[in-house]
Amino acid sequence: MNKLKLLMVADTYYPKVDGTLRFIEEFIKRGEEFEISLLVPDLGKKKGKKVTYLKPSKIFSLSGYPNMKFSFKNLKLIKNEVRNSDLVFVQGPATISYLATRYGYKQSKKTIFYIHVLSWELFEKFMPTILLKKIFYNLVKKMCIHYFNYCERIIVPYPDLKEQLIEAGVKTEIVVARLGVDIEKFTPAKNKAGAKKAIGIDGSKTVIGYVGRVSKEKNVPTLLEAFKKLENQENLHLLIVGDGSKELITQFKELKNCTVTGFVDNVQDYLKAMDVFVMPSLTETTSLATLEAMATALPVIVTKVGYMKNYVVKDYNGIFFPKNSSSVLAMKIKKFIEEPGYREKLGINARKTVAYSFSWERSINKIKRLLLKEYYS
């Protein structure tokens, strides 16, 4: 019996190893029921079999992610890949994904969209004025909902997002399937000082860390300002694991006690070197980076956005701080620095939370059943 041809579509690919790409990696590992091919942007690193690359634009990019180049060749590639598939499985959050959704609809291909990021919240952050932000937010939101309603099914990682989409006007059936974490890969450091030395940081320093895009929507300037307000800088190190805005990266690199890694394949090694994890983001869905930090037994300081406000429990596995408040964030970080016992207790509970509730096996098995059911229904 021939396997179903499953086309996975995304607007990210290597070397930009983000949450969406990590989901794709985990799905491919477990997707033996399908013949999987990928439709992704050419961001400079070719990796994997059965991958079709689309040329990126040299003019327009957001947060270090180039948009797809609008060319007849790219459009033809998208059409052909959709035509040659049995199922189209879209990951978002930009042009390639929405064009694949459109062509899937036109060619009567069953299309399933897993929403990792709300595009309208993501792109709104890059508009320079409040008026433009509002106009752009509404336009992008309207466009996204239009394309979501072309799909046979929408998958979201948590229940509140389902309700949010229904309220926004999405008519397509929405199913919840959590993201997962590989708790065998993301484990607590056995030797914290050694883990720091392994990535070039003094083992005696207290390391404050972040993993993700270095961008406006991730609100990393607030983390930078909070870090600068901390006392005893000679005993601290700021570790930024990710890439993005050159302007923002330059600001971080101006600090003597700061490391910016760019995108890396071995995120787990950098998490092991951290003592405290901060996710200052203005917009998130699940925040896989935060879950991976928790699996590494790190206490987390996060904003109350997306699913984080549900799985992070104050004074149990992490704490919250108000968006854009660098002073409050500095106070929260200081508390963790000064109270290692409190920090350790929350870290232990953080790992328990992830081990109990977030499994790639359960998540991807559920998604595979949904895809197969959708095709054969």
Keywords:
Rossmann fold; 43% helix; 377 residues; alpha/beta; globular; 15 helices; 7-stranded parallel β-sheet
Report what the structure shows.
The chain has 377 residues and is of the alpha/beta class. The chain folds into two domains: 195 residues, Rossmann fold; 166 residues, Rossmann fold. 43% of the residues lie in helices and 19% in strands. It is built from 15 helices and 15 strands. The strands form three sheets. The protein has a seven-stranded parallel sheet with strand order 3-2-1-6-7-8-9, sandwiched between helices. Helix 8 crosses helix 13 and helix 11 crosses helix 14. The protein is globular.
**Radius of gyration, rounded?**
21 Å
Helix vs. strand class: alpha/beta
- CATH domain class of the largest domain: Alpha Beta
> Uncertain segments of ≥5 residues (pLDDT<50)?
none
Task: Estimate the mean pLDDT confidence.
Answer: 93
In total, the number of domains comes to 2
CATH fold-type name of the largest domain: Rossmann fold
End-to-end separation: 18 Å
Write the CATH architecture name of the largest domain. 3-Layer(aba) Sandwich
Please name the fourth-level CATH homologous superfamily of the largest domain: Glycogen Phosphorylase B
Bulk shape: globular
How much of the polypeptide forms β-strand, as a percent range? Answer: 15-25%
Count of DSSP E strands? 15
Outline the biggest β-sheet. 7 strands, parallel
Helix and strand sequence: EHEEEEHEHEHHEHEHEHEHEHEHEHEHHH
